Fold:
Amino acid sequence: MRDHRRWLGVTILWLAGACCGGLLAAADAQAQISDGVVKLGITNDQNGIYSAAGGHGVVIAAQMAVEDFGGSVLGKPIVIVVADNQNKPDVGSSIVRQWIDSEQVDVIVDGGNSAVGMAVQEVMRAKNKIFLISGSGTNALSNKACSPVGFQWSWDTYGLAAGTANALVKQNLDSWFFITADYTFGHILEAQASEVVTAHGGKVLGSVRHPFNTADFSSYLLQAQNSGAKVVALANAGGDAVNSIKQAHEFALTKGDRHLAALLLNITDVHALGLDTAQGLIITTSFYWDRTEESRKFGRRFMERAKNAPTFLQAGAYSAVLHYLKAVAAAGTDETSAVAAQMRKTKIDDPMTENGYIREDGRVMRDFYVVQVKTRAESKGPWDYYKIIGTVPAEQAALPLSRSECPLVKKP
Structure:
């Protein structure tokens, strides 16, 4: 078998100190930790177009969670290993198989883009190991492809569509044209935003799909411009979202009555665009660092290390790792079924989430926030980019269970 350290670049190994935090004092003397260590594997895009939103920032967030937990669990060290999956499902699934089969990895964190996340979900289901999904956003992961060991932590396409599309349609922006990334994530995001638009009496006038990692959006933008739609919606992410917004700005696409909707945009994308280009965009997010006192404390600590504000993917990784470690401590073991059961029955409270919980389909339930990007004059300092203009309650930000195709959901 090929060595991922060689063919994927450097695999980072980080060993937490074996200090004892308050949570460890009550550890059961009979606690069982497989192989004498709890090992977390982080796989995502470390160098490509999604690396700013996830990438090494997820590693930093996971390290912070381990430190905040106390540095070890049930008296045993915690190890983090990292590999770049290059946004390729076959690479991601190969990494995960090797980690579990040969390196005794106990849990996978992030997953990267939705196509990789779907592939990793199937490996983790077969191996009966926990998957803490912070990067992958297709809601198929907690719907048709749900798993008893898969937890969709940070976001999903349904939540983003519910926020942004609702906010714009309520402003009588009722005709839409989509520029969509041509893979599972983009297709689902377009479909779910379209559903919101039509449910409120709006119309979808057309759509066009672009390949992953597109440099030139001119032909797609011209089609959108010629459609006459009031809203040009971007169902893409990362570098594709940044490039399409920059080029839309160059085309003066939003002059007059036309608006640009970025259905997935992270705060690092806004930073890359600059406020002069991004100002006025309406975005839905599950986390903003400057929302509460607790999120501000976390955000400032993260910024000291990463030199950028935490994205909702990175904050989600922190939340997921912390909750997992709490569950291991409470269960007295890192055995999968015991930890998964403990995770499901424990409320989630941390700098990202207040009073959250895990639904039976594996979807983490929390509020989402509709934000508008500030103007340069409104921004009072570094990373002060958003003003919150609405809240999407947890139950409205998730696909209703009555519509779920997840086999874990009990039907009446």
In short: Residues 157 and 257 are 26 Å apart (CA to CA).
